[in-house]
Write a structure and sequence with these properties.
six-stranded antiparallel beta sheet, about 45% helix
């Protein structure tokens, strides 16, 4: 891409960016091996990544958490028992499954805090196929931590060694026996092993790690979600590097979660039994006392039966007392729950209201929610080393709110029950008033029988409830059922082998292509004729090839070379611009090093060999160079002549070429610009035009100093030298502005040092114009070092220009 200048009708310019796709494609074809090397390197990196990157696989499992309605009527007592089916907030179940204590229990049960690694030449990987299990690495809440070398000596013994003995391992090497204990510091490890015959003489890296960190990592990686909205199926998934290990993890997680759910139900039934047993013990004592009273009454009185009227009144009182029994049981529960909530912080062991026949939905809901939150709080309780969980504080606040809500609900229920009991008491008193007309013995018997039947009814009611609780405790099953056992849920997640190879192939091609494009984008030098035509409207007089030899006068030393022919072409093309027998030329350029002096010497040589008397004037008095190429003295020259220190005959020097004279620049003066403005310079030009057929003036670069502009008016034509891959494009745009402003007149361009050929450069044809001097189509430049003013040479292939 080049910055191209487009000239508008009003004289202003407009910058455009143009991509030369032919040059980019040419680089691709020419440097195909660079792309091949890049692709090979990229594919090799992809292979190494696929070979040694940690491989990650997806694991999954699913369970059903049964709802109470799913049990059905045939199993109502076992699966839908109000004694054990507490409130369950299903939205909390995924979080409970991912809870830290549950996962830590799984990690401890599987012994994941002990890891074996196999050391390879490049990477060390964990191995899970060893039939070895080490326990005893946890004491209280502290895990044994350390790294050792573990070598299986034979099917019965092993060696544990460390290069850095610690307090736990005093010796650098100890030998232990399988299926036996091994004391390491304050820990008594037990190494249980199966058949290790296939692993004899193999050495592993044994790591004892912090189980809390392992559990925390699993909690972060494990994903738990409902299969879909409204469903009771829970999906669990985790990514792993060892599928067999995560199958064990998910299996143990489901098992322990189900056991906890079952234990929760058993605990509810057990708590109900304990509460009912206390009530039964009290009632049993009362019944014994009443039975004793009835027995004493019968011993002292002849009458043991009531008449019909008394029987009728007693039956009515029995019905009222039976109705009152439920309120008595409820009041006992209210007293129990009030005392329990005020004196105990272990809220997950509270007896459910349904266990004593209380069916108030508000109280049942509050107590069930409290049980659920208490279980969550216990689940979220980290040990002291893990820090305080902010969610626990939130749950505690909710528990306090529920506690207050239960107190209010109990208070309301008590008030309601008192009204009902009061009505029953009134009816019982009315019946007792009717009994008051009976004889004394009958009244006493009625009272004793009433008390006995009341206690007996209450005892039977509680006995029934206890039987239900006992059956529930014995037959409780978990609501958690495995749907899909842990399995490999798909192919390799990472690394993506095919994708890595595709990306490597794309990058392997794209990187060098991008480099080629960037070189084109960032290259601000003139590359081809098209670049010149886009930057300026000046005509191109001709092109000059690359000089690969250390020869300055190419035309005379190698007259049959294509390079010499290119200067003859310049001479011929000049006839279209300067149609005179005698004429003068000025040679200038943008910056130093573009080949002005080289072009001036060889062009003058061509004119001299054609029989024209030619002279070269070295007007570049700031950085004189011609005398160095010709190896002549520079004591006297243009500067000494213009300053009046030498005559014209003294400064004219003959060259080895016939008809060619040289006027060197002379010693560098302090004021070269002022000397060119002196009238003496104009007089010199007039004399030289009269004396010679061709006058060539080599001036300083016009893009650096303005000296050349002082010479423009004295010459018939100006040759502006442009060097391939050297002259800045911006210099040509400045040149165009100078031409438009009239600072330069009758100017044409010489494209010098052409050494790059092919598509996009516009110079596939030879410079010999049919003479066959070796610069045919598609030919590359010759090797070696050429001659240019700054001593530079064309850059080699690695510059990729």
């Amino acid at each position: 891409m080049k910055n191209s200048t487009e000239y508008l009708e009003d004289g202003h310019t407009e910058e455009q960016l143009i991509v030369n796709y032919e040059r980019i494609w040419y680089r691709v074809v020419r440097y195909w091996y660079v792309i091949l090397i890049s692709v090979t390197a990229a594919l090799s990196i992809a292979f190494l990544n696929n070979r040694y990157a940690t491989k990650i696989y997806p694991m999954a499992a699913s369970i059903i958490i049964k709802e109470s309605e799913e049990a059905g009527q045939t199993a109502e007592l076992l699966y839908n028992n109000p004694l054990i089916n507490s409130y369950r907030n299903f939205l909390n179940e995924p979080y409970i499954i991912r809870s830290f204590p549950l996962i830590q229990q799984v990690v401890d049960s599987l012994g994941f805090a002990v890891e074996f690694y196999q050391e390879g030449e490049i990477k060390t990987s964990e191995t899970y196929d060893l039939p070895i299990r080490i326990t005893g690495n946890k004491k209280g809440e502290t895990y044994f931590i350390g790294t050792f070398k573990f070598k299986i000596n034979d099917p019965h013994t092993f060696t544990l060694s460390s290069n850095d003995p610690t307090e736990d391992l005093k010796s650098t090497e100890i030998t232990g026996h399988f299926n036996d204990s091994l004391t390491v510091g304050k820990y008594k490890l037990y190494v249980k092993a199966g058949n290790v015959s296939n692993f004899v003489n193999k050495e592993y890296l044994l790591k004892f790690v912090d189980g809390f960190s392992i559990a925390k990592g699993y909690a972060e990686r494990l994903k738990v979600s409902w299969a879909e909205e409204g469903a009771s199926v829970v999906n669990m998934s985790i990514n792993t590097t060892i599928p067999a290990k995560e199958i064990d993890f998910l299996s143990a997680l489901i098992h322990i979660y189900a056991v906890q759910d079952q234990n929760k139900k058993k605990e509810a039934a057990y708590n109900s039994k304990v509460f009912i047993d206390k009530q039964l013990a009290t009632i049993s004592d009362s019944l014994l006392i009443i039975e004793k009273q009835l027995e004493n009454f019968k011993d002292k009185n002849i009458m043991t039966n009531l008449d019909a009227k008394a029987q009728q009144i007693l039956l009515k009182i029995d019905d009222l007392e039976t109705a009152k029994i439920s309120y008595v049981v409820k009041e006992s529960y209210y007293e129990y729950i009030d005392k329990y909530l005020r004196t105990s912080n272990i809220l997950d062991q509270i007896v459910l209201p349904t266990s004593v026949g209380i069916d108030d939905p508000i109280l049942i809901s509050l107590v069930s929610q409290m049980l659920d939150l208490q279980m969550q709080a216990k689940t979220l309780s980290y040990n002291s080393s893990s820090g305080e969980n902010p969610l626990t504080n939130s749950l505690k606040n909710k528990l306090e709110d529920l506690r207050s809500g239960i107190f209010e609900s109990v208070k309301t229920l008590r008030s309601t029950d008192r009204i009902a009991v009061s009505q029953l008491d009134k009816q019982i008193k009315e019946m007792e008033r009717q009994l008051s007309v009976l004889p004394k013995e009958e009244r006493q018997l009625v009272t004793i029988q009433r008390s006995y039947k009341l206690g007996e009814s209450l005892y039977v009611f509680l006995t029934q409830k206890r039987t239900e609780a006992a059956i529930s405790e014995a037959s409780t099953v978990s609501d958690v059922i495995t749907v899909n056992r842990p399995y490999l849920a798909g192919g390799l997640i990472s690394p993506k082998i095919r994708l890595n190879y595709i990306i490597a192939l794309i990058l392997g091609v794209a990187l060098p292509l991008t480099f080629f494009v960037l070189k084109e984008l960032l290259n601000s030098k003139v590359q081809a004729k098209e670049d010149i035509n886009r930057a300026t409207s000046l005509p191109i007089l001709g092109v000059v090839g690359h000089n690969s030899d250390q020869v300055h006068m190419v035309v005379s030393s190698k007259p049959k070379s294509s390079l010499a022919e290119s200067f003859r072409s310049l001479r011929s093309n000049l006839n279209f611009f300067v149609n005179k027998d005698k004429f003068s030329l000025m040679l200038t350029s943008s910056i130093s090093g573009e080949g002005k002096s080289f072009t001036a010497l060889n062009l003058a040589n061509v004119f001299a060999l054609s029989g024209k008397k030619t002279v070269i004037v070295g007007a570049d008095m700031r950085k004189p160079r011609i005398y160095k190429e010709l190896k002549i003295d520079n004591d006297k020259g243009l500067s000494t002549y213009l300053s009046g220190e030498a005559s014209l005959d003294e400064i004219i020097k003959e060259s080895e070429v016939d008809n060619l004279d040289i006027i060197t620049s002379g010693p560098v003066p302090p004021n070269p610009g002022e000397l060119l403005l002196h009238s003496t310079f104009e007089e010199l030009i007039v004399q030289l035009k009269n004396k010679y057929d061709v006058l060539l003036i080599d001036t300083p670069p016009i893009g650096i100093v303005a000296d050349a502009l002082e010479v423009v008016d004295y010459v018939d034509h100006t040759l502006y030298i442009v060097r391939q891959n050297y002259t800045p494009l911006g210099a040509l745009r400045n040149l165009e502005e100078q031409v438009k402003q009239g600072q330069l007149k009758k100017t044409s361009l010489v494209f010098n040092d052409i050494y790059k050929f092919g598509p996009g450069y516009g110079y596939g044809y030879g410079y010999g114009y049919g003479y066959g001097y070796g610069y045919g189509y598609g030919t590359q430049q010759k090797s070696g070092y050429g001659y240019y003013e700054n001593g530079s040479t064309p850059k080699k292939w690695w510059s990729w220009k």
